[in-house]
Amino acid sequence: MKKIITILLLVLFWSLPLYAGQSDVRNLRIWSAPDHVRLVFDTDSLVEHKIFTLDKPNRLVLDLKNTRLSTQLPQPESNNRFIKRLRSAERNKRDVRVVFDLNMAVKEKSFLLEPNRQYGHRLVVDLYDKKESSKRRTGPVKTARKSGNRDVVIAVDPGHGGEDPGARGKYGTYEKDVVLAIARKLVKMIDQKPGMRGVLIRDGDYYLGLRKRMLKARKHHADLFISIHADAFKDSRVRGSSVYTLSRRGASNEAAKWLAERENSADLVGGVLFEGKGKGKGEDLFTVLLDLSQTGTQQASSTAADRVFRQLKKLGKTHKKRVQQAGFMVLKSPDIPSLLVETAFISNPDEERRLKNPAHQRKVAKALLAGISDYFNYQPPPGTWLAAKQEKEAPRRHTISRGETLIAIARQYAVSLNRLRRTNELKNDTIRIGQVLQIPGG
């Protein structure tokens, strides 16, 4: 008996070096986006890997060194554009090889992610159509706007997505899900307005980099970019909506700075900060050109944000009394007025419940639409249907004479007093002799 125990102990002792220090693959998640498929391997430590493709037939091979599988890898869904199936096998008693049988030739990209608030170590593999990737390299983004009485285009961007879920509420609600629901409702409402067209930047549960969101808005010649989020804070009592515009000089307060840093860190999920070491000269030049070209855009962003904020105030409590500023990466398009809306604090249980409610989601979308419409009615881009409509209504001008009052002028031109105030951005009914008022049509 002692001899048997001794042999077993020796076998165990000899096998310890075999598994000591091995990484463990605990799970695989597959996310399908319109232009790529993302595979995320959850591991208990950093994994050394090698990846390459084979043809005839098309395959992708992923070798994981000093690694073992502690779970059965899931198969992709039948409608997966890139992957037919996947299989795995042990190699050299220490390594694992995963083979993906593909539907087409792919361009692969892989990188490692460090642990964050929700996940541990991860190995990420992105697959792109090889033919489409070549086309994108040779085809520049065209930013020229269409001529004629075109629709104004509003790019609606639901924050986060896929591997980047955003904030999470007490009852398990993810930010990425509720903001997508609100964004879809908003785009549907926009499309029902004459002279307006909505573009959904993310229409599914997948990761999309911050710069890609900006580029997609430019590709669609957007006249306004609105990014929708749901805030979170360590104190669950904090509540209310907020509207942000880009700040180059620093955040308007410490909370805004913290929020911008958290939102900008979403690009860590895309491996952006793991592919290079620090900024290069090209990025420094880009920043300088961005500063020079953004002055007019920021002014328009501020006007649009003010109009949206006014409507959100009607819907309920706002977190601050005015529009805030912070350095959000997603708002840095040099030629598109951009704003970011934090619809509520998902960390507040009451607001989390409302955010999940489709009726409340419609109310939020309706408030956003009212602000957007107000902005474009006040400042329609040249060459749009809304601008042509405004010109057709022939806005008139009236020069104030002695003894005139604002209410008398409104009656004279058969327009409402509120509309006359709003058109001329008057805070009260005080007017002065010689002042020129713009009279809204109809």
From TrEMBL:
Domain LysM spans what residues? 396-439
Pfam families per record: Amidase_3, AMIN, LysM
The record's section on SUPFAM superfamilies has: LysM domain, Zn-dependent exopeptidases
Q: Which domain of life is it from?
A: Bacteria
Which compartments does it reside in?
Periplasm
Assigned EC number: 3.5.1.28
Which GO biological process categories is it annotated with? cell wall organization; peptidoglycan catabolic process
What does the record give under GO molecular function?
A: N-acetylmuramoyl-L-alanine amidase activity
Which UniProt keywords are listed? Cell wall biogenesis/degradation, Hydrolase, Periplasm, Signal
State what protein this is by name: N-acetylmuramoyl-L-alanine amidase AmiC
Q: Which organism is it from?
A: endosymbiont of Escarpia spicata
Provide the taxonomic classification.
Bacteria, Pseudomonadati, Pseudomonadota, Gammaproteobacteria, sulfur-oxidizing symbionts
